[in-house]
Amino acid sequence: MDEREVGSSELWGEFARVGKALGSGTRLRMLDLLAQGQRSVESLAQTMGLGVSTTSAHLQTLRHAQLVRTHRVRNHVFYALAGDDVATLLSLVQKVAGTHLAEVERAWEHFVGPGRGEVEEVDRAELLTRLEQGRALVLDVRPETEFAAGHLPEAVSVPVDELTRRMDELPEDTDIVAYCRDGYCVMAVDAVRTLRSHGRRAYRLNEGLLEWRASGWPVHTSAG
């Protein structure tokens, strides 16, 4: 093998580090959560229902591939995406899988349960049109900590598990467009179903903060 072939092998081997890090559904989900905002190891472990040591091992694989970065606050290590390009990469993985694997749609249908067809969707262009015309409210139904870390401009935060209790805070004569983490996040589906059962005109944005961030659109944060 000549020197150029050796160099080519080394080069593709480095690319494979990223591919290896992405080769786990658990790690892909971790990246999706980190796309919402930085997290401690303990927070990720709790959200995903994993042990801290297992979570740390997966994060070290992601860190080895330079997909995440860390910083320490007292005794806690916080992880974040290494850059918005990682969000773009994750979004493309979802898009390619959804386009070419029929199993993705079947898994999604199983995930959201019966009645998905009752949940009307709008895309980003339609959302922006309705906002410009003053006839839509953007509803972020993720946990408040994720909303504070980053959200769509003009979005209002009402976590999905608080929606029924706080229904009176939402207008009855305005289109409500709900979104959550990504295009495969079920929280927005549940939110639209709840809103419609209370007589609201509700729609699901067909993407989430992941795709919004990956496309380079502005993301706002909340003080504190």
From TrEMBL:
Residues 132-221 form the Rhodanese domain. InterPro entries: ArsR-like_HTH, HTH_ArsR_DNA-bd_dom, Metal_resp_trans_reg, Rhodanese-like_dom, Rhodanese-like_dom_sf, WH-like_DNA-bd_sf, WH_DNA-bd_sf. One of its GO terms (molecular function) is DNA-binding transcription factor activity. Residues 7-101 form the HTH arsR-type domain. The keyword Heme does not apply. SMART domains: HTH_ARSR (SM00418), RHOD (SM00450). Pfam families: HTH_5, Rhodanese. It comes from the Bacteria. Keywords: DNA-binding, Transcription, Transcription regulation. This is ArsR family transcriptional regulator.
